[in-house]
TrEMBL record:
Name of the molecule in the record: CBS domain-containing protein
InterPro entries according to UniProt: CBS_dom, CBS_dom_sf, Diverse_CBS-Domain
UniProt cross-references to Gene3D superfamilies, sorted A to Z: CBS-domain (3.10.580.10)
One Pfam short name: CBS
Domain CBS: 24-80
Length: 134
């Protein structure tokens, strides 16, 4: 897994002109939006990952869920074992394109307060994930 460490105002000359495609992780596990939270947590544990790409019935990427988000849902007072990923995703996105520059992606991630972005092609199919190093 390749992680990217981004710092605001970085002047690293190797970062100039780099795109998301240069540093993104491969797509990894993709699951359908009708999967339950419990099953998604099991898939994450089996895959040893901290996030899953979520797809709709036609296979298009509709978002990303993190272990932190799923654990918080499971601990909530309104949780039941029937809660599906589509129930917790909310609005579609944010997403990025493989041709987006690292500077633009960093700005988008800071603005959206996320530490991982799905990378999708022009049709909405998942290509990978851009994740910040911790």
């Amino acid at each position: 897994m390749t992680l990217v460490q981004m710092k605001p105002g970085s002047t690293d000359p190797t970062a100039v002109g780099r795109t998301v495609a240069d540093v993104m992780e491969t797509a990894g596990p993709q699951v359908c939006n009708d999967m339950t939270v419990e099953v998604a947590l099991s898939v994450m544990a089996s895959a040893r990952t901290r996030h899953l790409l979520v797809c709709d019935d036609s296979g298009l990427c509709i978002g990303l869920v993190t272990h932190t988000r799923l654990a918080a849902v499971r601990e909530s007072s309104v949780y039941s074992d029937r809660v599906q990923l589509r129930d917790i995703l909310g609005d579609r996105g944010p997403f990025t394109s493989p041709v987006t520059t690292m500077a633009e992606a960093g700005h988008m991630m800071r603005h959206s307060a996320v530490d991982a972005l799905p990378v999708v092609d022009e049709h909405g199919s998942a290509l990978g994930v851009l994740a910040l190093a911790r």
